[in-house]
Amino acid sequence: MTRASAPNLLVVDVGNTCMVFGRYEGARLAGCWRLSSDARATADELALKLTGLMGDARVDGILAASVVPHLDGMLREACARVFGREPAFVGSPEVKTGMAVDYKNPREVGADRIANAIAAREVAGSPCIVLDCGTATTFDVISPEGHYAGGLILPGVELALEALAARAARLPEASFARAGSLIARDTVSSMQAGSYWGAVEAFSGIIRRLRAEPGYASAPVIATGGLAAALVEDIPEVSEHRPLLTLEGLWILARRHFGAA
Fold this sequence. Notes:
The structure is a single chain. By secondary structure, the chain is α/β, with parallel strands linked by helices. The protein folds into two domains: 8-89, Nucleotidyltransferase, domain 5, CATH 3.30.420; 106-246, ATPase, nucleotide binding domain (Nucleotidyltransferase, domain 5). The protein has six helices and ten strands. It has helices at residues 43-54, 72-83, 111-124, 157-167, 187-211, 245-257, and strands spanning 8-14, 18-25, 28-36, 61-66, 88-89, 128-133, 136-142, 148-155, 221-224, 240-241. Helix 1 packs across helix 2, helix 3 packs across helix 6 (245-257) and helix 4 (157-167) crosses helix 5 (187-211).
């Protein structure tokens, strides 16, 4: 790989619910695939799936952000079999992010949150705020100086619904969905209305409070995550919806790490 030829890079966001793979040909996202983060899966099974998805595509470097450590070994082995190389991981000493982290213990910050922050800073400048709606809901705050300032972690909206059904004997399981009516007229619809509008109001309120902090009054909000699409139309505080923000951040880091920046 040389600077004269644009590298083909594979980036992987390993989350609690799914693993998202993005293959970049230069600056172009050539393919994006979601696979279940199945703890029972083997490296052989993952390698077979990756071969079926990507065939003999050339990969010059692989960078992963993982919040599920017990899947890292499987990913390493599968990538070595299919692509002839193991992934580097955000959070390891050799991967330099170029972003100062103001957490008391920077190693506590999830690799996906760092990738989100790097992509958001690139897109929106500093300061800015990331709202990531996934298994957990997270807010990541990038300071006016461009640092990772910190953030908030909430139960994900689907997780909250599952916990409600599990802990309340007379409540059924209900899927998360946009509720058209605030005053629902059956139990499942009531649970959906409560979870949906509760999330909308909670997220809007947190954004308003963050913007009330000194230096953040005009901070744009970038929304991402698998559940963001269902919510953003009712959260006017959101400036932009970027479903693949984590992959964008990983691509920026991968280009730096593999010498293509």
